Each structure stands twice: as structure tokens, then as C-alpha cells.
Amino acid sequence: MELYDIVVIGAGSGGITSAVTAVGFGKKVLLIDKNKPGGECTWSGCVPSKALIHEAAKIHNARSFIKDFAYDSKEAMDHVHNVRETIYSHENPEALSKLGIEYLQGEASFKDSHTIMVGEREIRGKKIIISTGSSPFVPPIEGLDSVPYLTNESIFELERLPENLIILGGGPIGIELAQAVSRLGSKVHVVEMMETLIFREEAEFSKAIAELLTEEGVSLHLGARATRVTTRGEKVVLAYEKEGRESLVEADTLLIAIGRKANTEGLGLVNAGIQYGKKGIQINAKLQTSQSHIYAIGDVVGPYQFSHMANVQGILATQNAILPLKRKIKYNNIAWVTFTSPEIARAGMTEAEARESRSDNIRVYEYDFNQLDRAMTGGETREKMKVILDRRGRVLGLSVMAHRAGEMIGEAQLLRSQNLNFSRMASVIHPYPTYSEVFTKIGKRVMVDNLLNHPLVKIFRKKNPNE
Ligand SMILES: Cc1cc2nc3c(=O)[nH]c(=O)nc-3n(C[C@H](O)[C@H](O)[C@H](O)COP(=O)(O)OP(=O)(O)OC[C@H]3O[C@@H](n4cnc5c(N)ncnc54)[C@H](O)[C@@H]3O)c2cc1C
Ligand SMILES: NC(=O)c1ccc[n+]([C@@H]2O[C@H](COP(=O)([O-])OP(=O)(O)OC[C@H]3O[C@@H](n4cnc5c(N)ncnc54)[C@H](O)[C@@H]3O)[C@@H](O)[C@H]2O)c1
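Structure for NAD(P)/FAD-dependent oxidoreductase, as requested:
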């Protein structure tokens, strides 16, 4: 029996971060994965999708000059595969070993709450961290089990993209890939049961991205509930129901992107007495499972399924496993980006969420980038920032749709995490012409409003209505 201070199951974003943190504390660490290290982010998530999006943007630009610009999607897929390998070279078993992490390839399963089996090997961990991630949720749609379909686990393995593709699901996976695959020359249909794409975002941003995708040639079937799948010759036919009527959509293949299911199967959680349900492993705010020496992080617990969230949870769970003082996770400063072009970034609440939780006790500022010189230089008209503040001027939420939105959201995160008043932005110098100037512009409006809202100013203005 081998004994480790910390055993981590799953070498994805969360697991690798946990292992690196634990060796930083001088602990003896074993990291186990049934596949190569890297997890979803490296092999079938963030990395390949962003590499594909990068290639798609290049071809989209080329086609703005030469309409019939010839391109073989094999080049894009080669790029995707190369990028994955480059990133893997920083997290392969040799790289992990140099960091002091022992890596074991194999499927892990609990024998009891302190013992993990990997094949015949019996491993004991004083503390254990589970980071087994999630898998694509495949719905029980009639006929789906008898047609070939793609998920995020198989699409990036292709040598070439299909000539036409149906994407089931208009969430972040669905729309990032819809735009990229369409820009690379395929005909794409998106079938989404809600009336909008990325329904969790600000409504006007969801609408704007739907309009843009339609302009780019993606066919959107919104408010459409998939009912059955059949084949016609080599083609896949998806039937959906909308307003009581059935419609059919046909393509070479189908990509399923309608959400995730937690990877709890085969882990022997019952043997260890770990409680779990449909949404994944149950944890407390300190990230402990029902066995207090076993922690769980990342997609297998949620509530936010992002790489950066798995990292944050990974660091906290490891610190809690090692240090006597245990801290609670806080999700109030979460942010994310949907990497369409333009990007849509979000920090905190939408306007609707803020109104629901704070009634109308909020201040909303909007800025259309068609008034912003930098955006004008690129002829951009749809871009926009929306800021939701509390009465005093602190940020409750900020959403931005712009080509640099993913980078811009960092500034909002700084304000939020430091609990700063948005008016502080009024005096921050942003070089001209940049997208980030919008922070100064909104900051100045907030500063003036803060002043006008000051009780003394209000009394003065009441007494001197003409001042
Ligand atoms: C197409 C796509 C694009 C995405 N883009 C982004 C993005 O741009 N930004 C972002 O933040 N997030 C993105 N995500 C989400 C992100 O990939 C996940 O949130 C993140 O990878 C979760 O990390 P994790 O450590 O929880 O799990 P994973 O990275 O999935 O790692 C889990 C690991 O556990 C292993 N494992 C499972 N069971 C066992 C077992 N019994 N024994 C041993 N090993 C096991 C698996 O092999 C896997 O390697 C994207 C997801 C998809 C699908
Ligand atoms: N840029 C990023 O950070 C990024 C990118 C991709 C994925 N992700 C992560 O991966 C997670 C999963 O993404 P996702 O897009 O698969 O899931 P999702 O849950 O975010 O979106 C799925 C969509 O499918 C729709 N849907 C569900 N069932 C359907 C049905 N039967 N027919 C038609 N439509 C249906 C839903 O209404 C929803 O709009 C995300 O929540 C996110 O955490 C992040």
C-alpha cells in the first residue's frame, strides 16, 4: 500500500492546479487520470475551441477581401491539434514530474474513504481531492442512439470539418462553434429550445449575437424542441417542434451541445460514503464532501463550469486540506467570456438579475461603442457595455460585447474584487484610442451622478433650483 499526503483524482484544470498547490506546500502528491493530463480544457474544451476560433477569424477576414477564398478546413484542424500538443508539453507527465508531482495513468475508484484502487494498485491518501470533471449530456431523443453524432469530445478529433452541421444547443459551446465552423466554410444550423441564444446573458447581447450569426449565414431555429433523429441516405435529419408544428433540418452530422453531466460514475463514491446526486458531488462551502478529508472541485461539483473556476476551487480545496484554518468559497466575483466575435464578457449580475434581487434600487449605465473612436476605426456598430451599480456606485454587474471584451472584463473584476466605486474610473488614464476608454467615460457619468445624489447637494439644489 502506497501512502500520500494528497491524492488528486483527475488531471484537468482543477486537478493539476490542486497538485501544483500541494507540492508548493512540500506535500507528497499523487495525481491520477485515466487519460493524458490536461483534461477537457486542453483536449476537448477551451484550448481546441479557441484555436479553431482563431483560424476562423483569419479566414473570415480573408473572405472579406476575396469572397471565394479557397480553404481546406484540414489546415484549421491541424492548427487545433498543434496548439493542443504545445499546451500539453507544459503539463505532460515529464513536466509534472519536474514540478515534483507523481503522475499515475489509470481509472481511479474508491475502495473505502481512505483507499483508492487504480487497477491492482492500492493507494492511500491522507487527504483526497476529486476533480473528475463533466461529460456532454446526451438527451434521450428518439433515434439518437442509432445515428452517429459529434460532441465536444469528438469534434476536435476530426481531420476536416463536415460540409454542413446541425448544432443542438445554443449555449456557449453551441454558438462559439457555430460561428467558427460557419466561418471556416460549413453550412451550420443551430437548434435551440429557448427563444434566445446564450439565454443567461443580457437580453440585448443575446439578440445582437443572434442577428450577427444570421448575417454570417448561420441558420437559427429558436424556440425549437428536438423531437427525433433519423437518417436519409448519408444525411442526418433532426425533427423539431416549434409552436405545435414539426420541422426538419438535414446535414452531414449533428453536434450535441446542450449542457453537461457530472463525472461521478465508476468512482465508487458509495464505497467511500460520499454523497452525490444528479448535479454532481455534494460539497459544503469549504469544498469538503460528506467525508471531511475528501474535497471535490471543478465541473464535477459546479455551480460554475469554467476552467478558471476549477482553478480557484483547486487552490482553496488544497489549502483547506493542508492548513488548520479552512476558508469558504465565495462566488460573488465570478466572471466569464463567450468567445464569439465580438466576444461577450460578463462579471456579476445582469440587469434583470439585479432588479430581481434589489428591486429598482440600482443604477444602470450603457455605452454604445458606435460613439467610441476606437470602435469607429473598425466600423464596429453592435458593441456595447452595460454597467449595473448599487445606489452608491459600486459594481453589481458589468457586461460587455466587444472585440476585446475578454481583456476588458479584467478591469471590472479589479473594481469588484476591491469593492471600489465605479467613479474611481473617472480619473484613470486610458490611452487613446482604446476600447477601454469606455471605463473612463462611464466613470465620469457615475462621478457626476454620485455628486448629484449626495444629500448636501440635494438640499442645496432644492433650495436653489436654478443653480
Ligand atoms: C467546447 C468547450 C469550450 C470551453 N471553453 C471554455 C473557456 O473558454 N473558458 C473556460 O473557462 N471554460 C471553458 N470550458 C469549460 C472547461 O473546459 C471546464 O470547466 C474545465 O475543463 C473543468 O475542469 P475540471 O478539472 O473540473 O475537469 P476536466 O478538465 O474535465 O478534468 C477531469 C479529468 O478527470 C479524469 N477522470 C474522470 N474520471 C476519472 C477516474 N475515475 N479516474 C481517473 N481520472 C478520471 C478525466 O479523464 C479528465 O482528464 C469549455 C468547455 C467546452 C466543452
Ligand atoms: N467560453 C467559455 O467559457 C465556455 C465555452 C463553452 C462552454 N463553457 C462551459 O461549458 C458549459 C456547457 O456549455 P453548453 O453550451 O453545452 O451548455 P449550456 O447549458 O450553457 O447551454 C445549453 C443550451 O442548450 C439548450 N438546450 C437544452 N436542451 C435542449 C434540447 N433538447 N433541444 C434544444 N436545445 C436544448 C439550452 O436551452 C441551452 O441554451 C457552459 O455552461 C460553460 O460553463 C464555457
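The chain has three domains: 2-38+91-136+261-322, 144-258, 335-457.
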